[in-house]
Structures are given as structure tokens and as C-alpha cells.
């Protein structure tokens, strides 16, 4: 009897010839780029450095497209966005020590489920194993700096380990939940000549994460018999490409749906059952607490998704989550460790249709009360700005938002008009995400204009990447809201301490600075924002739109 796992794929004649007669002059670094190409990579991001030069030399002999940014952290953000938009692992090439460490904040953001394959160099193998040998960029244990940030760490010490280590890392990055991984290869291993055959097609298919059927059977029964079911849809729904299945299930159950800030677009904004994304409003929190069965899909119910941990569900909670560490981490639940798409499909096959003529009316009532609360706070400017951006931005264009007041508004109030369209740094919350991430998205899909939104404080983290935008002629429009400093921190400190310290910033003339890079810039007003933004987005290549404006957040509604 022959078993499937006994079958071995036989090489073709061409593969045999290539294996027996590999091209001359190849090095360990060629094994890196050959493996990446064999895994399906087409684009790599990064910056060169002394110990990693072998990899960059090998790129010349490959078909991989290289996108070089100016700061490693920004390269990480670009790779993050490329992974989110394409669903593919995004290779990030880094050098030893300072270069590698500078990427850590971006990899922490990617830990919110972006498949980034970070490949760093190391000092020569003779210097590894403890002690200090005086090599440039040397760290006592470089991989230790990454273990608390990435999904998995894959150290390489010999050339024969390179294909398997990269394949294993690729598989790890793309297995739900997606996330960043770290591979490191010593300089001498990269530079040494190799006689290993050309790498062709390594096997690195991500593993499925199906739900346990006995758990989905219980969940389906609870949802079918519920009097007031509700659904919280998180980023796991978007990443699993499960938005259509979510909508089918919500309509089958007549269950209202609220999307988390990471899950925006997972459910149609204007659907009769849509509670939109007003998670920071007490009216929404009260509604969710009143549900007798609450289905949470692809969310760990962390600080932002739980209205700053004030959310206290009274009914039965069912939580579907691919990240095992987040399962029941904040609330007791019927925990189902599974990919959102597979779990939702299982529920669709087993739940019973329920009728609820009051569901849409109850949703309208909540949204009306949210609207009334916001209207009472004299925040017309902020709402009008979001409306102007929405009208100017093409419906299918992605947007990337930095940590800034307008982004916090967008978390709750912006209609992304589709799944995987709106992205922000709400995973780790670091500054400087918006513009370099937008560049990565423009690399992934040059057919659509991409919007980046930053405050002036966050923009100062990313100005060097205007050179990247111009060099590769990327279709990104960067909206910079200039309020003279760290606006949200100014607000926080004034509310908490009666005054703000260290929040006021000297800024450049952003328009003149952009133009010095050869990037068109324009200064706009709230009244002309829509027209100026639409014009910038309609023209090919990068552009900058600067809006001087001081914005305010809506009052903290978790306080009642």
C-alpha cells in the first residue's frame, strides 16, 4: 500500500541539470534570494548594511524587486502594509545591530497580524556563542531582542540551513494569526561560495486552523436560541477574508454587528444591522452588554475594543480567535481557537435562521443616540473634515492613518467602504506609521491611489521617506494635519494636569520641504480640503496636502 506521505516529487530534467550544474559565483546570499523567489516573493523591502551586503549583491542576480526606504523602522511599516494588502509574506532585509534594532517598533506593530518576514544579518560565526569580540554592530544575543516581539525566531548557522529556515519562517508568518518572524544569518555564511544546488520550490504552505466541531455545534445552538444576539467583528475577519461569511451569518441570525477599529470594513457600514464602529461610546457598550449571546470574531477584546475595559458582558460570550493567547484573555467565553473564515463557515452550516423584526430598529436607536451625543459637543469641524476626506477618496482606495486626532475620529466615524481598506497603528500605537505604510500599499497595488494621514508630530518621523516616494514614483497622497505639536497628548495633559508640557513642536514648512524632494505640495483649508485632496489623489505620483487645523476629540464616552 502506498501512502500519500510516502510520495516523493521527482525533479524535472531541467531541475536535475540545474542541480548538477549550478551557475558559478553563487554565495550563501544567493540561497536566500532563490528561496524567497521559490516561496513566491516578488518584492522585498529594506536597507543595506555592512554585514548584509552579500544579500543585496545577490539581489542583482534575481528577479526580486527591491524597495529601499531610508529608515529601517519605516521599511518595516512598508512591509507591514504590503503584507496586509496582498495577504503575502513581505520580506524585510536588515543589517546587524543598529539596523535590526531600529525595525523593532515596526515589527511590534506587525504583531497585530501582518506577515512580515524579517531577515537580518549577524556577525561572523566565529564571534557567536557568548562574549564580546569587538565586531562592528555586535550584540551579545541579537535574537533575544526579537523574541518578545515576533511570532518565531529562526537562527541560521550554515548554508544548508538557509532554505529550510526561510521556508519555516514563511510558513509561520502566514499561518493564522499572521505575524512577523525573524531570521538571522551570519555575514560569513552569506558571503561564502556555495555548491548547494539552486533552490527551486520549497514547501511552506501555511497550516489551516479549523474549529473543533463540538464547539461550533454548541455555539450554533446558543446563537439559534438567543433572544438578543450581537456580534463584535475584529481584524481577524478582515485578515481571513471572511467578510461575506460574516454578513451571511448576521443576516441569518438578525444579529447587529459592531466592528472593532482593526476590523473596520468587515461589515457594510450602512447595513441595517450595522452598529458601525462606535466602540468608545457608552450607548454601544450598553447595547453589547445587554446581548444574551455575544459572538466575538477575530478580536481579543483588548483596551480599545472593550471601551477601555469598561465593557462587562452579562450574557454568554462566544469568542472565535486564531491567537491562542488572546482566547478568553479578557472575558470568560466559549473559546473557539480557529481561523475566522473556517469558524464562520462551520456556524453557517449549523445555525438555524431566526427572525427579529426589532433588530434594525434597535440599531437605528443606538446610532441615533450616539449621533445626538456627538452633536452636543460642537465638533462640526472634525466631522466635516472626515466627510470631505471620504468624498475625495476613491471608494476602493486604501487609507493609512497615523496616531493623530483625526485618526482617532476615523476609528469610530469613518466609513472605509470595504474590507481591508482602512489601516492604522492601533496594534502597538507607535508614531510614524501612516506614510511609510501607505508607500508599501502603493508598491503592492500601483493601480489605486493611496491616502496617508498624519499629524505634524507623526509626520516628522517619516519625512525622509519623501525621497522613497519620489524615487519609486509611488501613488501616495500624504495629508498632514498641522496643529503645532502632539495634539492628542496636549489634550490629555491639559485634561489631567491643567496644562501641557513637551507637546509644542517647531515644524518645517511641509509644502516647501515636499517640493524640495520633487513632490508636489499644497496648503489647504477645511473649506478647500475636499477639492485639493481629490485633485492630489487623481494625479499620478506622490503628493503632500497640508491642513493647518487644531482639532478636538469627542468626550470620553466610557464615563457615561
Secondary structure layout plus pairing:
Layout: H1 13-20, H2 28-39, E1 43-46, H3 53-59, E2 65-68, H4 72-86, E3 90-94, H5 98-102, H6 104-110, E4 116-122, H7 144-147, E5 152-155, H8 162-174, E6 181-186, H9 187-191, H10 213-225, E7 229-233, H11 235-239, H12 243-253, E8 257-259, H13 282-290, E9 293-297, E10 316-321, E11 334-337, H14 340-348, H15 359-375, H16 380-392, E12 399-401, H17 405-413, E13 422-424, H18 434-444, E14 450-455, H19 456-459, H20 465-471, E15 476-482, H21 487-497, H22 510-516, E16 521-523, H23 529-538, E17 543-548
Parallel strand pairs: 1-2, 1-3, 3-4, 4-6, 5-6, 7-8, 7-9, 9-10, 10-11, 12-13, 12-14, 14-15, 15-17, 16-17
Task: Output the keywords.
about 550 residues; alpha/beta; six-stranded parallel β-sheet; single chain; disordered N terminus
Would you kindly provide a written description of the structure presented here, covering whatever features stand out?
The chain is α/β, with parallel strands linked by helices and 560 residues long. It is 38% helix and 14% strand. The chain is built from 23 helices and 17 strands. It has a 6-stranded parallel beta sheet, sandwiched between helices. Helix 4 crosses helix 18 and helix 12 packs parallel to helix 14. The longest helix has 17 residues. The protein is globular. It starts with 12 loop residues before the first helix and ends in a 12-residue tail after the last strand. The relative contact order is 0.10. The N terminus is likely disordered.
Amino acid at each position: 500500500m502506498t501512502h500519500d506521505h510516502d510520495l516523493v516529487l521527482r525533479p524535472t530534467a531541467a531541475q536535475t541539470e540545474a542541480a548538477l550544474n549550478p551557475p558559478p559565483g553563487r554565495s550563501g546570499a544567493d540561497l536566500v534570494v532563490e528561496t524567497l523567489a521559490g516561496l513566491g516573493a516578488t518584492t522585498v523591502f529594506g536597507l543595506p548594511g555592512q554585514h548584509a551586503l552579500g544579500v543585496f549583491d545577490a539581489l542583482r542576480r534575481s528577479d526580486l524587486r527591491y524597495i529601499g526606504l531610508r529608515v529601517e523602522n519605516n521599511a518595516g511599516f512598508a512591509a507591514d502594509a504590503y503584507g496586509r494588502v496582498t495577504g503575502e509574506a513581505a520580506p524585510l532585509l536588515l543589517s546587524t545591530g543598529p539596523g535590526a534594532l531600529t525595525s523593532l517598533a515596526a515589527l511590534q506593530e506587525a504583531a497585530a497580524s501582518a506577515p512580515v518576514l524579517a531577515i537580518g544579518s549577524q556577525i561572523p560565526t566565529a564571534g557567536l556563542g557568548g562574549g564580546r569580540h569587538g565586531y562592528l554592530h555586535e550584540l551579545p544575543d541579537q535574537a533575544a531582542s526579537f523574541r518578545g516581539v515576533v511570532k518565531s525566531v529562526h537562527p541560521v548557522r550554515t548554508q544548508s540551513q538557509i532554505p529550510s529556515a526561510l521556508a519555516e519562517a514563511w510558513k509561520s508568518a502566514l499561518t493564522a494569526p499572521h505575524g512577523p518572524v525573524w531570521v538571522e544569518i551570519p555575514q560569513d555564511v552569506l558571503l561564502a561560495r556555495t555548491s548547494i544546488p539552486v533552490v527551486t520550490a520549497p514547501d511552506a504552505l501555511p497550516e489551516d486552523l479549523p474549529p473543533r466541531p463540538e464547539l461550533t455545534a454548541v455555539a450554533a445552538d446558543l446563537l439559534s436560541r438567543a433572544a438578543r444576539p450581537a456580534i463584535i467583528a475584529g481584524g481577524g475577519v478582515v485578515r481571513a477574508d471572511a467578510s461575506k461569511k460574516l454578513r451571511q451569518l448576521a443576516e441569518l441570525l438578525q444579529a447587529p454587528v459592531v466592528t472593532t477599529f482593526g476590523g473596520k470594513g468587515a461589515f457594510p457600514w450602512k447595513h441595517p444591522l450595522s452598529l458601525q464602529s462606535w466602540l468608545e461610546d457608552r450607548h454601544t457598550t450598553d447595547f453589547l452588554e445587554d446581548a444574551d449571546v455575544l459572538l466575538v470574531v477575530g478580536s481579543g477584546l483588548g483596551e480599545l475594543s472593550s471601551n477601555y475595559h469598561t465593557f462587562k458582558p452579562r450574557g454568554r460570550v462566544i469568542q472565535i480567535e486564531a491567537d491562542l493567547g488572546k482566547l478568553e484573555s479578557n472575558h470568560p467565553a466559549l473559546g473557539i481557537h480557529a481561523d475566522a473564515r473556517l469558524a464562520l463557515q462551520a456556524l453557517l452550516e449549523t445555525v438555524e435562521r431566526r427572525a427579529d423584526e426589532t433588530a434594525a430598529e434597535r440599531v437605528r436607536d443606538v446610532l441615533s443616540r450616539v449621533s445626538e451625543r456627538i452633536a452636543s459637543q460642537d465638533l462640526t469641524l472634525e466631522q466635516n473634515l472626515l466627510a470631505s476626506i471620504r468624498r475625495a477618496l476613491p471608494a476602493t482606495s486604501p487609507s493609512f492613518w497615523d496616531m493623530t486626532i483625526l485618526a482617532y475620529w476615523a476609528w469610530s466615524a469613518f466609513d472605509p467602504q470595504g474590507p481591508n481598506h482602512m489601516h492604522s497603528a492601533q496594534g502597538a500605537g507607535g508614531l510614524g506609521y501612516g506614510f511609510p505604510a501607505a508607500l508599501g500599499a502603493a508598491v503592492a497595488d500601483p493601480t489605486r491611489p493611496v491616502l496617508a494621514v498624519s499629524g505634524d508630530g507623526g509626520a516628522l518621523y517619516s519625512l525622509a521617506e519623501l525621497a522613497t516616494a519620489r524615487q519609486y514614483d509611488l501613488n501616495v497622497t500624504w495629508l498632514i494635519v498641522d496643529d503645532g505639536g502632539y495634539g492628542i497628548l496636549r489634550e490629555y495633559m491639559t485634561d489631567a494636569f491643567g496644562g501641557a508640557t513637551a507637546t509644542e513642536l517647531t515644524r518645517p514648512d511641509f509644502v516647501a520641504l515636499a517640493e524640495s524632494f520633487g513632490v508636489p505640495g499644497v496648503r489647504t483649508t477645511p473649506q478647500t480640503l475636499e477639492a485639493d485632496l481629490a485633485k492630489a489623489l487623481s494625479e499620478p505620483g506622490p503628493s503632500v496636502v497640508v491642513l493647518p487645523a487644531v482639532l478636538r476629540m469627542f468626550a470620553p464616552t466610557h464615563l457615561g
